[in-house]
């Protein structure tokens, strides 16, 4: 009556992929979840949708929030506004306007200069110099060399200290991988964010003609309630078949062990094959907000490392691993962060409820390891003691397409991809898959950056 435009939420619930009724409803959470919600609210000043989806796995969420809080708010080498700005630069590389908006707010809140938000060229030269590292870490981390590190540390008045660089690298990798989580779980923007609301007159029923003009057709809800409730025999067989394969692989493991040469050959084969797994969705996803001004060289994206005759030597974990090398380097230069990251990797990798879809008391360690090692294999990282033949047995093509898309070009992830793998599994299990993807990706990026820093130092 007063002519005031009232914002209405565009989506239903925190995720476009998970029906609202299947997420944890605020008010119905247990005591541990309640504490986590309070922590998240205290850190960000809001209860964001990432938290509302991650809370399917409270143990992981607790570790994630602790790390996030430490990186953004506790004592550290970088000033607070730099931290948010680096978060913006990292999220923008994947056109993740959700995270960009979140950190634009954080940046302004801690007194950042609004002019910097007009584009990277308006930020201090020191931050502009980080652009190249941001780009390579996000899309082709295997190309990072000690020369890139040297450039950042030795550019006279705009040089970075080693401690500042470690802080920056951890922030960049954290936000590249969080962009993977955001797109992989279809996180919706909150009502007060760009893309999170529409303005329309209230209607008598919940559904009115103006919904259609605003692009909401209510079809998703109907569709998911129909398909979600009736397990198709095909997808039930899918679970059984996967469990049978796990059992057979375990028996083969017990009987014979492949030679080192055979293991190396299987790794190379899997690495080559991973190049032919490509996103089935060809359409380019346009950024919803103009995020491209926060980074340079917009045409630079993911390319498989062995394409066009470029040979990238295999990164052997035996020569440089997180446990033996990366962890201590981070902890030495940015105390406590190595510990926090280690805990987060550890929880994601070992998290299990011993269930698979409708089955209980299942040992899923073989499956979790296959997912983790497949991601590292796509980045050219090899474990000498792992039989890469297991990956093809356990991960089918639609699942590989989903993994590669979420890890390498997350902005192209679609609901169809999310729906097409593991159709009989719970949404919480699919969110768990995303946690594995996020942490394996982050660790792979970190390994390349930290190895280059170590080489520079020695």
UniProtKB/TrEMBL annotation:
GO terms under cellular component: cytoplasm; nucleus
GO MF annotation list: L-leucine binding; oxidoreductase activity, acting on peroxide as acceptor
PANTHER family reported for this sequence: P53 REGULATED PA26 NUCLEAR PROTEIN SESTRIN (PTHR12474), SESTRIN-1 (PTHR12474:SF3)
InterPro entries, per the entry: AhpD-like, Sestrin
Any one GO biological process: negative regulation of TORC1 signaling
Protein name as it appears in the record: Sestrin-1
Keywords linked to the UniProt accession: Cytoplasm, Oxidoreductase
Subcellular location: Cytoplasm
Family: Belongs to the sestrin family.
Reaction catalyzed: a hydroperoxide + L-cysteinyl-[protein] = S-hydroxy-L-cysteinyl-[protein] + an alcohol
Biological source species: Pelecanus crispus (Dalmatian pelican)
Keyword Oxidoreductase assigned: yes
Highest taxon of the lineage: Eukaryota
